[in-house]
């Protein structure tokens, strides 16, 4: 791994367990600034837990996470979560219009998002301004996902965590979202960490890839490890022998 | 009414027993236990009240009210065991309701400060609060379980626990208050309240009975609002830790 990459989030011996069951086991590694890191691994590997930990929704049972060498859990939770945005799986949508959803992060801070600002965020995710006052629950899966991304972007996060955001989408919508995330990464220099089940997507999008299995970081490095790894488990996973 | 005539009223217990047996509802044992408990408990209360009324001591009044609060707390907490510290939260709520309502009733001299008034009114208000607390806790825990993603969404966007739980809290408060408000809309038209009916049967002037019933109705509105809101605001912080994380396991 290149030494020149600056670290955005660093894991130091991070473990997490629930009722004595290990979910994550001694994770060590870094996500790099302004890069896209994809997280792959079978269901139950601990990917979502790891992502939620970065947003402060879960604390490790042992070990520590660092943001620019500051312990992640020394940062005020509300500040941390504004700076490290997360788009959760299946994009939970709040009842109301698209505007209500996009304005939510501002509303939580007792601030008002103007219609003009909301339209700008819609444009960023490739939705037309006519969507602004449509009922969010009536949108298609892909449109909801875009609204969820726009909503997270309102906080102007430095790091964006994405949990399976294209897994329920048709290929066209998934491709739209991929392009959008690449654009956000390139133009806004946002660090991206993206959980995906799709190995091809992980290779195509990610600068770096982490392969998790049974709560352990099996391998990490530039995304070509998905093709070149000599690890038998990795090969079995990427060849589809293990359940993704 | 003599005990002989009262014993004839047990005929009413036979109907549910026969129906339960015929339809295999398996409620015979519970019906018999409930009948025996109600006879023993009410007769015991009758004798205790007679003693307390005659004694005219505030110590006995306080003891009776404390016993009511304790019993109501132990009963209501079963529905909220998933919430940490729910026992003292319910107890504090019931004590506040009792203090507030009695302060108004006695402070404004709406009722005389005697055991004959304080104890039955306290029983009605505490009992109603207990039912409301159970309704609230049932709905609140169900709301949290079904809205886990929504709560986590608000937290993930930088919201506080209070903001994250606001919708669920509001829904549970509303749901627990609605039966009280709805039943008051049809009171006198659909059903005659128990207390009023009892007074009328006992020979009291119907208008006087209605006046007391209205007093109780108005006080119940306060207890309805206070019970749900107090338990709600006392309970929600224990669903989160100091890192503003929604606890995986509520207890």
Automatic annotation (TrEMBL), chain A:
<keyword id="KW-0547">Nucleotide-binding</keyword>
<dbReference type="InterPro" id="IPR005670">
    <property type="entry name" value="PstB-like"/>
</dbReference>
<protein>
    <submittedName>
        <fullName>Phosphate ABC transporter ATP-binding protein (PhoT family)</fullName>
    </submittedName>
</protein>
<dbReference type="GO" id="GO:0005315">
    <property type="term" value="F:phosphate transmembrane transporter activity"/>
</dbReference>
<dbReference type="InterPro" id="IPR003439">
    <property type="entry name" value="ABC_transporter-like_ATP-bd"/>
</dbReference>
<dbReference type="GO" id="GO:0016020">
    <property type="term" value="C:membrane"/>
</dbReference>
<feature type="domain" description="ABC transporter">
    <location>
        <begin position="9"/>
        <end position="239"/>
    </location>
</feature>
<dbReference type="InterPro" id="IPR017871">
    <property type="entry name" value="ABC_transporter-like_CS"/>
</dbReference>
<dbReference type="GO" id="GO:0016887">
    <property type="term" value="F:ATP hydrolysis activity"/>
</dbReference>
<dbReference type="Pfam" id="PF00005">
    <property type="entry name" value="ABC_tran"/>
</dbReference>
<keyword id="KW-0813">Transport</keyword>
<keyword id="KW-0067">ATP-binding</keyword>
<dbReference type="GO" id="GO:0035435">
    <property type="term" value="P:phosphate ion transmembrane transport"/>
</dbReference>
<dbReference type="InterPro" id="IPR003593">
    <property type="entry name" value="AAA+_ATPase"/>
</dbReference>
<dbReference type="GO" id="GO:0005524">
    <property type="term" value="F:ATP binding"/>
</dbReference>
<dbReference type="InterPro" id="IPR027417">
    <property type="entry name" value="P-loop_NTPase"/>
</dbReference>
From TrEMBL, chain B:
<keyword id="KW-0812">Transmembrane</keyword>
<dbReference type="GO" id="GO:0005886">
    <property type="term" value="C:plasma membrane"/>
</dbReference>
<feature type="transmembrane region" description="Helical">
    <location>
        <begin position="88"/>
        <end position="111"/>
    </location>
</feature>
<keyword id="KW-0472">Membrane</keyword>
<feature type="transmembrane region" description="Helical">
    <location>
        <begin position="117"/>
        <end position="137"/>
    </location>
</feature>
<dbReference type="Pfam" id="PF03649">
    <property type="entry name" value="UPF0014"/>
</dbReference>
<protein>
    <submittedName>
        <fullName>Putative ABC transport system permease protein</fullName>
    </submittedName>
</protein>
<keyword id="KW-1133">Transmembrane helix</keyword>
<feature type="transmembrane region" description="Helical">
    <location>
        <begin position="57"/>
        <end position="76"/>
    </location>
</feature>
<dbReference type="InterPro" id="IPR005226">
    <property type="entry name" value="UPF0014_fam"/>
</dbReference>
<comment type="similarity">
    <text>Belongs to the UPF0014 family.</text>
</comment>
<feature type="transmembrane region" description="Helical">
    <location>
        <begin position="214"/>
        <end position="236"/>
    </location>
</feature>
């Amino acid at each position: 791994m290149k030494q020149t990459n600056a670290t955005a989030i660093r894991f130091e011996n991070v473990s997490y367990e629930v009722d004595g069951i290990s979910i994550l086991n001694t994770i060590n590694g870094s996500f790099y600034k302004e890069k896209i890191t994809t997280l792959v691994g079978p269901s139950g590997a601990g990917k979502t837990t790891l992502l939620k930990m970065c947003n402060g929704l879960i604390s490790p049972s042992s070990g520590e996470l660092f943001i620019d060498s500051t312990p992640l859990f020394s940062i005020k939770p509300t500040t941390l979560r504004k700076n490290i945005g997360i788009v959760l799986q299946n994009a939970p949508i709040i009842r109301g219009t698209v505007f209500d959803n996009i304005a939510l992060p501002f509303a939580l801070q007792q601030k008002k998002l103007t219609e003009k600002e909301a339209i700008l965020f819609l444009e960023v995710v490739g939705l037309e301004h006519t969507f602004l006052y449509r009922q969010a629950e009536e949108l298609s899966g892909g449109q909801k996902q875009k609204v969820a991304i726009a909503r997270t972007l309102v906080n102007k996060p430095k790091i964006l965590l994405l949990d399976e955001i294209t897994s329920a989408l048709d290929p066209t919508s998934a491709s739209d979202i991929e392009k959008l995330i690449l654009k956000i990464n390139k133009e806004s220099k946002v660090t991206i960490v993206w959980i995906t089940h799709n190995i091809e997507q992980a290779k195509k999008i990610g600068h770096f890839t982490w392969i998790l299995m049974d709560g352990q970081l099996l391998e990490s490095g530039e995304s070509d490890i998905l093709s070149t790894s000599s690890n038998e488990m990795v090969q079995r996973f990427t060849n589809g022998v293990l359940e993704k | 009414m003599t005990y002989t005539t009262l014993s004839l009223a047990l005929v009413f217990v036979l109907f549910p027993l026969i129906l339960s047996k015929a339809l295999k509802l398996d409620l015979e044992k519970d019906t018999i236990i409930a009948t025996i408990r109600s006879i023993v408990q009410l007769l015991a209360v009758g004798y205790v009240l007679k003693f307390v009324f005659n004694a005219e001591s505030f110590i006995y009044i306080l003891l009776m009210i404390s016993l009511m609060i304790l019993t109501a707390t132990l009963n209501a907490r079963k529905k909220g065991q998933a919430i940490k510290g729910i026992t003292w939260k319910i107890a504090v709520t019931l004590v506040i309701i009792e203090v507030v309502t009695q302060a108004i009733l006695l402070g404004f001299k709406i009722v005389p400060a005697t055991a004959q008034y304080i104890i039955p009114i306290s029983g009605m208000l505490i009992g109603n609060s207990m039912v409301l607390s159970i309704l609230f806790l049932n709905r609140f825990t169900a709301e949290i379980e079904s809205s886990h993603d929504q709560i986590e969404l608000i937290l993930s966007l930088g919201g506080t626990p209070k903001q994250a739980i606001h919708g669920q809290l509001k829904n549970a408060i509303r749901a627990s208050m609605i039966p009280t408000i709805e039943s008051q809309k049809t009171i006198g038209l659909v059903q005659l309240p128990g207390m009023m009916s009892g007074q009328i049967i006992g020979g009291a002037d119907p208008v006087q009975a209605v006046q007391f019933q209205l007093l109780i109705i108005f006080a119940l509105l306060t207890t309805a609002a206070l019970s749900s809101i107090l338990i709600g605001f006392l309970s929600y912080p224990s669903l989160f830790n100091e890192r503003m994380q929604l606890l995986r396991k509520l207890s």
